[in-house]
Amino acid sequence: MTHTVEKIGGTSMSRVHELRDTLIIGDRKEADLYGRIFVVSAFGGITDLLLEHKKSGKAGVYAAFANSDSDHGWHEALDRVSDAMVAAHKAVLDHPGDIERADAFVHDRLLGARNCLIDLQRLCTYGHFRLSEHMLQTRELLSGLGEAHSAFVTTLMLQRAGVNARFVDLSGWRDEGDVSLDERIKGAMKDIDPAAEMPIVTGYAQCAEGLMREFDRGYSEVTFSRLASLTGAREAIIHKEFHLSSADPKLVGQDAVRKLGRTNYDVADQLSNLGMEAIHPKAAKTLRQSGVPLRVTNAFEPEDPGTLIDDQPADGPNVEIVTGLDLFALELFEQDMVGAKGYDSAVLDILTRHNVRIVSKVSNANTVTHYVDSSLKVLRRVEKDLMERYPSARVTSRAISMVAAVGRDLNSLAVLSRGLNALADNGLEAIGATQGPRPVDVQFIVEREVMKPAIKALHHALIESSEREMLKAA
Question: Where is the Aspartate/glutamate/uridylate kinase domain (predicted)?
Answer without folding.
Answer: 4-298
